[in-house]
Amino acid sequence: SPPGLFLLTSFLLHMEEGCTSPIQLVCDNRLIHKYIVEAKDMEKRAGQCQALPTLSCPAVLPLVDFSLQQWKSKSNETKRQEILCDLALLVGAVVEAQGQVTQECGDKQLRRLYRHANSFLLLLQTFSWEAGPWEPGCSPRLMEQTHVTSIFLTYRQLVQGKLRFFFHDLAKDLCK
C-alpha cells in the first residue's frame, strides 16, 4: 500500500541506509546485520556513559528470549504481532528512562535507541498478512529493571533474535 511504502522508505532513510527498495530490507541480510552491529554499538556506548542513574521507576521490559522450535511453528503474522508488542514495550521503557536520565551521554544514547526501536515499530505496523493493522493488547512476558543498560541489552537481544529470524522467514517468501 502507498502509506506502507512511504513508512518503509522513511524507515530506510531514517536508519541512514541508502536503499530505496522496500524488499531490500528483508532480502539483503546485510541490513539486519548492520542493525545488529548498531544495537551492539548503542549498548556498548551506553555502558561507557559515566554515572548513569538507577531508575527510580523501573523500566518494564519484554522478555525477548524464545525457543527457535516454537518460533518456527508460528505464522509470520503471529511473529509480527509478538515483535510489535515487544517493541511497543521497549519504546515505552525508553521514553520512561529518558525522563529520568539527564546526563548527556545517556540521554544521547536513549534518543538514538528510541529512533531505531520506534522505526522498527512503525515499519512492522505497515506489514500485514492475516489480521489487519496491529492493535495493542498483547500480553508478553515482562521483567522490571532499574538499570538503563538493561534497556539496550533487551533491544540488542530483540534485534539479534526475533527480528533477525523474522526477516529471515520473510525472505523465504519474498526473495525467491
Automatic annotation (TrEMBL):
Secretion signal, residue range per the UniProt entry: 1-20
CC annotations in GO: extracellular region
Gene3D superfamilies, per the entry: 1.20.1250.10
InterPro entries, per database record: 4_helix_cytokine-like_core, EPO/TPO_CS, EPO_TPO, Thrombopoietin
Keyword Signal attributed: yes
GO molecular function list: cytokine activity; hormone activity
Name the UniProt record assigns to this protein: TPO protein
